[in-house]
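Kindly inspect this one:
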Amino acid sequence: MTDRHFLVNRRRVLTGAAAGAASMAAPGFWTRALAAPKTIKIGLVQPQTGPLAFFTEHMPFVLEQVKKTTGGQVTINGTQHPFEIIIKDSQSNPNRASEVTQELILQEEVDLIATYATPETVNPVSDQCEINGVPCISNDAPLEPYFFGRNGDPATGWEWTYNFFFSGQELAETLVPYWKRLKPDGVIGGLWPNDGDGIAQSDKDHGFPPFFEKQGFKVVDPGRFDMPASNYNAQIGAFKSAGVNIIQGVLPPPEFTTFWNGAAQQGFRPDIVYVGKACEFPSAMEPLGERAYGLTVEVWWSKFHPYVSGLTGQSSLEICDAYEAASGRQWSLPLGFRHSLFEIVLDTLKRTENPDDKASIRDALKATKYKSIVGEIDFSKGPFPNTALTPLVIGQWTKGGKYPLELVIVDNTTTPEVPVNAEPTLIQY
């Protein structure tokens, strides 16, 4: 399905009522007097195809929730404005993400843009918005790759672009107490590719290696690598020879499958395996069968989180149950962040003084202080300009009941308000 085809269908859904009202207006004076309020155009850039497509599976459900809850209208200064959501596919490619963002800005003339799904999507979209003076709200990109990967200056920040998610520092601080409970003498193997996340995490001055070493762990880093990779023999060989028993990495699901299959073939059996991007999705884990048991997940959000949507009033559990009932698929971490993205978009618009002025929309976005389904979003707190930090806990995959796998929370050291419901375990082979 092309971007344009999807756009036409979505416009009919979200702005049909406004179009119907406009068609009934008489010509002449009454047309001018009863002119429909400005239609707000929201651009959405997401990886619908390619290796990051796993990240988009919740969006149709979320858009349907937005439609049902709002009726395709947002109230700004007492006036109801119809809105339309124009979707573009980044194809999991940063260059394509830039191109379609330019299309949204220059051809569609959108009022603001929303995006998500790793720095490979978020950063190029944000850069184009910053260059062209269009407000941009994003999540699902760790804060350091988002900020420093775009050459952000902590003294100044940016004018138009804002992102909320967990930070690399937060992730490291969340992983260490969990590791120390299981493997206090661990040797960590870094599986860090040549991309935004991998470069940020592997930085020998400000990344993970110096922090982990200060905590008493040894770090083995075989170096950056490009993806897709036909195999991970070099990395596995380096890990085996160095006695690595903890894997810490960040790979898309297909790449992790290649690595994990290679580890099995070569008899590499680490005690703890954490690989960001890959292990968050039950649909990516299920093909591994029992080899998924015990894999570690950094849990950005779950059905166990004690937060409520400011848009629909649903609890985390209620949103997960509704998603499973509507889709027939198991909930997973990104669901809350897809939902929260539009919580912030709509809250920003509601607080905008002048919807005809992009700077006014930007000012409302900058002033965001909102209790969302993923926790409070407050851009005044940082840790970097234009960013907001969200909570993080640690989970593991276990044998499921209703579904083949179940995610359980095993360590909440950094966010005790999220309840633990299982004890951490080493991987059993």
Notes: Residues 3-23 form the longest helix (21 residues). Residues 71 and 106 are 27 Å apart (CA to CA).
